Description:
Strand order of the largest sheet: 1-2
Protein name: Glutamate receptor
Organism: Triticum aestivum (Wheat)
Structural class: alpha+beta
InterPro entries: Ionotropic_Glu_rcpt
Helix content: 55-70%
Amino acid sequence: xxWSARRLLAVAASAGILSMLMLRSSAAMAAPLPxxxxxxxxxxxxxxxxSLTCISMALEDFYLKHPxxxxxVELRFRDSRGDIVxxxxxxxxxxxxxxxxxxx
Length: 104
């Protein structure tokens, strides 16, 4: 094999490897997959408002430390207004709505 053929082969191999690496990194930077998580808190109480702040800050800190995660947790907050039975039923209702539950 002469010098120019080897050089051409090396350039082609390098270009192939670089293109594979670029495709891999662009796939990693694709839009994150959302994971919706419901959180029911009593926002009329101090503890509920503090919990809302702490949960939000913890999630923000986690993604600042781990920016390459392919999933993103999306928190869906609901205020129970101190009524835990209604809050539990609302969570069950939305779960069933998303999953097409049937009452037996």
